[in-house]
Structure formats: structure tokens, C-alpha cells
Amino acid sequence: MAIIEITGLEHPGVEIFASLTEAQLRNRLDPANALFIAESPKVIRVALSAGYQPVALMCERRHITGDAADIIARCPDIPVYTAPREVLAGLTGYTLTRGVLCAMRRPDAPDVDKVLEGARRVAVIDSVVDTTNIGAIFRSAAALGIDAVLLTPSSCDPLNRRSIRVSMGTVFLVPWTWIDAPAALRSKGFRTVAMALTDDSVAIDDTRLCAEERLAIILGTEGDGLSAEAISQADYVARIPMAHGVDSLNVAAASAVAFWQLRSRN
């Protein structure tokens, strides 16, 4: 275990935590060296248990023998950068949640067919760009029995630091990958339901939906919802009945309702 006291950004390796943007960490030009940042001991433990490979830790000195002690013991061959809380906040630009960060290697996105193997209920995130919503959708997916999550390229990266934190590490538990368009799932044996308000949308408790053997639930962007193309290509269009003149729920809240209602009963 290499405990390294830091006082500034000049120490090699600290830039991972302090100055690299999310895009730079993702490193599209050199995917083999792409990274992401997991924040808080609980989330880091979930990632380690899921098999993600740690590269470096940053934590407050007091956490070395405290909240991060078991994590450090699991990662004996990586550097641990440390400093008082106020110094770390100044270096990274934000107060660390529970005082611990871990840089980890970003794995290659798995093949769609592998992610869908054995799946009966999947979520499709189409052009959702808010990191908080992405994290909340993953948390609901994990809790409510969704077998896999697919994202279109215009959606936010689930391994964004904030998405990971909001998801409480469930982005490491639910299989996920990227897909060009929701319509592609038809060729994979799925029927699709677009969550949208249209003149011909059915209520989400329509018995035909739960009766489907394999169902993909398509969720759209925060502002405009799903595109007309995505809606027209879906097998069903469903709505969540509203009261008090409210027209719709936030996409994260809507996902939780949809996942629960449309879960596989078998």
C-alpha cells in the first residue's frame, strides 16, 4: 500500500481526480486506458464486488484507518493519495462525499445480445441527458426487477461520477450497454412499449402489456419526451394516469412506476 501525501496538483496521478473532465476520463481515442470515478465507500465496495478494476484512491487521511480501511485492504497494489478534507476540496473543486474517491478502469461495452441473454424486462433510455435521472433510473431498474438497460448514443454516460453516486452503485449491478435505436429490439424478440402521451396511448395497467413474454420499456428525454419516430415504431404506447391536472412525471419517477407495473409476473 502506497500512501502518498499531496499538497497540490503537481503530483503525478492526481490529475485523474482533480483536472480531467468526464470526457477525458472516458478517453474515446484510447479506450484501453479509459477511466471513471466512483465516489463514497459504499459505492466503491459495490464496484469492487462487481469486478471493476481500481487504479487509484483519494481519501482524507482519517479514512485510511476508518471508512476506507477495508477498501484499501482489497486494493493493496494501487496508490492512495491523501490530504486533509479542506485540501482535497480545494484540489478537486468539490467536497468529497464520505471522503473517498476511486479511479477505476472502464470496461468495454458488452455486446447487446449478451446483455439481453435471458432478459424478459429491459429498459431503453432514449436521449436522457441528465446525470441525476440516469442514476435514478438505474436504481429503480435494479430494485424493481429490470433485467437489463440499453441506452441510445445521445443519452448520458451511466459511468459519469454523478450518475454512479445517485444510482448508489446499481450501475455496476444491472447489465447495460448501448443500442442505436429502440426499434432494433424487435429483431431480438422483444415487444416494445413507448412511455408517451398520445391520443392512442393505453393505460400502463393494460393487461396486454404485462402479458408480454419479453417487453422493452422505452423512456424519453426530459424536455420533449420520445421522438415521433420512436413512438411510431413501438408496439404499444402507454401512459401513467395522472390526477389534479398534472400531465406527466419526471422521467426518473415515471420509470419507477413503469418498472413496477410492467414487471414480469412469472
Report what the structure shows:
- By secondary structure, this protein is α/β, with parallel strands linked by helices.
- It contains 11 helices and 12 strands.
- Helix 7 runs parallel beside helix 8 (161-167) and helix 7 runs parallel beside helix 11.
- The longest helix has 13 residues, at 131-143.
- The radius of gyration is 20 Å and the shape is elongated.
List strands and helices in order, with pairings:
Layout: E1 2-5, H1 15-18, H2 22-26, E2 35-39, H3 41-49, E3 54-60, H4 69-74, E4 79-83, H5 85-92, E5 100-105, H6 112-116, E6 121-125, H7 131-143, E7 148-151, H8 161-167, E8 176-178, E9 191-195, E10 202-203, H9 207-211, E11 215-219, H10 228-233, E12 236-239, H11 251-261
Helix pairs in contact: 7-8, 7-11
